[in-house]
Amino acid sequence: MVVRFGKDIRQLLLKLAHPMRTLVSQNCRLFSCSQRTCTDADLSKHPHKRRRIFSGIQPTGVPHLGNYLGAIKSWVSLQETDDVLFCIVDLHSITVPQDPVTLNRNILEMTACLLACGIDPEKSVVFQQSKVSEHAELAWVLGSLLTINRLKLLPQWKTKTSSSDGTLLGLFTYPVLMASDILLYRATHVPVGEDQLQHIQLTQHIAKLFNGRFTQTFPTPTAILGDAKRVKSLRNPAVKMSKSEPNRLSRVDLTDSPDEIREKFKKAVTDFTSAVTYDPAGRPGVSNLIDIHSGVTGLPPEEICARCAALDTAAYKMVLADEVIDYLTPIRVRTLELLQDEGRVRDVLERGSERAKEMARANFENVKNKIGLS
Length: 374
Known about the structure:
By secondary structure, the chain is mainly alpha-helical. The protein contains 15 helices and 5 strands. 58% of the residues lie in helices and 6% in strands. Helix 6 packs parallel to helix 15 (342-371). The relative contact order is 0.12.
């Protein structure tokens, strides 16, 4: 009697344990998924899980300090909380003439810098746009939904056409490719600067057009605007820091040597007032330097001004240069190490592109089914 009672208890415990084992297994799979990029199926099963974020950067070679403070720095933290895809958008880069050898080198340098800054291919997907053909294929489908007049409304197109007599078609259609980049992975959020907001609005418009015509397919992506101030040119604080500006003194690249950084800050444009004060409208040059200082130290502008009250702007530039050197040195060293091992950098891109391709293929097949191309 006692033995039989024991068997009954064991059988009961086994029955109770079975759903618990299933729950543990499901939780383990969910935890594993959170360490890598989830598939669309994962997101549909666990809609409360995390946002899917897409961010692209053109392969302009080594990024500058404005790229880092305005975007890359925040990307590093996003990969800890969200499912993130970081794309080297090389197809976008060829909307202007490129030297093939230089472009190939720039792709490697940009990738190495992203890795050196803390982008982790085990926590996010780092890939090369041209390795995933579905970007261009979906762009063609989406472009077929739009009118020429809608694209002409974009301010970037107006700027480009006003400054050139022979504007290339790629500059007109690249916002559609940008929308394809985002929608191909069913991204829910996109980090952008204010100058890119109209492109996100176009993407939202395209998603609604497609969903309205072919049933719900794409989420409507939301723009993420960063808190960082836009870093301005060191030679002309009226414009943002950019690789397109020919004067090398206008920007600090992430791999600049300490001497180069000191030289660039020493020659940074300020004004005739020697005090260190923060007034973006009235003193844009020195205020830009203070914004950079704030970006690398985390100190608010008011505290920086208080700490540097006894300095004139010439002395302050050297203090700032030393802060930037200390901040960028680990990134510089790591980037140069990675560029000595190009095979490793290419492997990161290949593996990331394979993961992106798998996601893109499934999503584009769904699009083809919806529009009758299956």
